[in-house]
């Protein structure tokens, strides 16, 4: 494994799960440390710099939500470390609590290891956006930094809401993005996200009723498939 591989800390009091995650993520070329509690995590963060935290919510003593809030509130190098919350609490209100606490993504247990890996990759891409400037799908190219969509060489006119929506999806290309997350990023409320998705499909899909690139993921939200 390369020394410059992203360093992930798994914070979970379930020793078996933490060990399995460490093995799986190590096999996928990440450096991995494990902490069994918020106190243990704080100690390790005092001596190491991490690229991402995979954080359980329900733990004895200080829970993951409190730890995430305190990390965001404190200064220093760890304030902006990306956090993926991994928890059995999967209701919309629980996800919103996590996002309000400052976590970057929220994955409910039980989960598919491959989805966890894809979400980690997406978070790390967002944390270093300068390395992800453009994505392509079909005849379209979307410049993430400029929020500019081209079809071949022609600019496709997007509303500001559509630009934000497409940027959010592009930064997590290949990974489902929930309606709640899209609402938080775009400011659209309720079914307004679905209306914006419909309008966006009309601009990028050959057949908006049978979308190829911007698809619905039943029970989760939407996903953008890039080439």
Give a written overview of the molecule.
The structure is a single chain. The protein is 40% helix and 22% strand. The two termini are 28 Å apart. The strands form three sheets. The protein has a five-stranded parallel beta sheet, sandwiched between helices. It has a four-stranded antiparallel beta sheet with strand order 6-7-8-9, covered by helices on one side. The protein has a three-stranded antiparallel beta sheet with strand order 10-12-11. The chain folds into two domains: 7-127, Response regulator (Rossmann fold), CATH 3.40.50.2300; 130-224, Orthogonal Bundle (Arc Repressor Mutant, subunit A). It is an alpha/beta fold and 227 residues long. The protein has helices spanning 15-27, 38-47, 64-73, 92-101, 113-127, 160-171, 179-186, 192-204, and strands at 7-11, 31-35, 52-56, 83-87, 105-108, 134-137, 140-143, 148-151, 154-156, 177-178, 214-217, 221-224.
Q: How many β-strand stretches?
A: 12
Secondary-structure arrangement, i.e. CATH architecture of the largest domain = 3-Layer(aba) Sandwich
In one word, what is the shape? Answer: elongated
Number of spatially distinct domains: 2
Strand content: 15-25%
Q: Poorly predicted ranges (pLDDT <50, ≥5 residues)?
A: none
Strand order of the largest sheet: 2-1-3-4-5
Element order: H for helix, E for strand: EHEHEHEHEHEEEEHEHHEE
Q: What Rg is obtained from the alpha carbons, in whole angstroms?
A: 18 Å
The percent of residues in helical segments reads: 40-55%
For the record, the CATH class of the largest domain is: Alpha Beta
CATH topology of the largest domain: Rossmann fold
Number of helices: 8
Mean pLDDT: 86
Query: Which superfamily, in CATH terms, is the homologous superfamily of the largest domain?
Result: Response regulator
